């Protein structure tokens, strides 16, 4: 594959744009029948394995957190998610887009991330119904310098 083709794939694959890499262990939290299956499959294709579920009992490289407004307290969910990842890992927070059931205000995401000790490093549309915010633990945020 040419370098040009590699760059084209990076632009088209949301999983690559979001920073997922081969051989990462990615834990998925908040799965329900409304999640974006194409995004899940794209992440699995990049990492080369299935996403692990909430019952996974080891440390993951990253967490995919599907969160809807009615799912409870976002700060608590983010704090819980940080316990599942390696120091320096990232959380991909996925929330319904504006106008969709379960929509979460961007200010609520920013406030919850800050309270949980996370830094928002990237926000992106990841599908027809979902927006993603890439949240980094403090060590990961510092290593981006």
Could you walk me through the main structural features you see in this protein, from its secondary elements to its overall organization?
There is one protein chain. The chain has six helices and five strands; from the N terminus they run ααβαβαβαββα. The longest helix is centred in the N-terminal third of the chain and has 11 residues, at 37-47. The N and C termini lie far apart (31 Å). The model is unreliable at 1-10 and 140-145 (pLDDT under 50). It is an alpha/beta fold and 145 residues long. It has a five-stranded mixed sheet with strand order 1-2-3-5-4. β1, α3 and β2 form a beta-alpha-beta unit. α4 (74-82) crosses α5.
Helix-strand category:
alpha/beta
Strand residue content: 25-35%
Series of H and E elements: HHEHEHEHEEH
Note the gap between the termini.
31 Å
- Backbone CA Rg: 15 Å
Query: What is the helix tally?
Result: 6
Q: Are there runs of 5+ residues with pLDDT below 50, and where? A: 1-10, 140-145
Major beta-sheet overview: 5 strands, mixed
| Order of adjacent strands in the largest pleated sheet | 1-2-3-5-4
Characterize the overall form.
Answer: globular
Mean pLDDT: 87
Structure in a nutshell:
This protein has helices at 3-12, 14-17, 37-47, 74-82, 106-115, 138-143; strands at 26-29, 60-66, 85-96, 119-125, 130-136. By secondary structure, it is of the alpha/beta class. Strands 1-2-3-5-4 form a five-stranded mixed sheet.
Topology of helices and strands:
Layout: H1 3-12, H2 14-17, E1 26-29, H3 37-47, E2 60-66, H4 74-82, E3 85-96, H5 106-115, E4 119-125, E5 130-136, H6 138-143
Parallel strand pairs: 1-2, 2-3
Antiparallel strand pairs: 3-5, 4-5
């Amino acid at each position: 594959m040419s370098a040009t083709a590699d760059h084209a794939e990076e632009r088209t694959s949301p999983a690559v744009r979001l920073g997922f890499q081969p051989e990462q262990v990615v834990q998925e939290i908040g799965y329900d029948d409304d999640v974006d299956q194409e995004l899940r499959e794209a992440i699995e294709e990049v990492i080369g394995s299935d996403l692990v579920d909430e019952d996974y009992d080891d440390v993951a490289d990253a967490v995919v957190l599907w969160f809807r407004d009615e799912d409870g307290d976002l700060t608590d969910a983010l704090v819980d998610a940080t316990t599942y990842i390696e120091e320096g890992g990232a959380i991909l927070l996925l929330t319904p887009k504006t106008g969709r059931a379960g929509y979460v205000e961007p200010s609520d995401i920013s406030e919850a991330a800050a309270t949980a000790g996370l830094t928002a490093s990237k926000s992106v549309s990841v599908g027809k119904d979902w927006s993603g915010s890439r949240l980094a633990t403090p060590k990961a945020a510092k290593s981006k310098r």
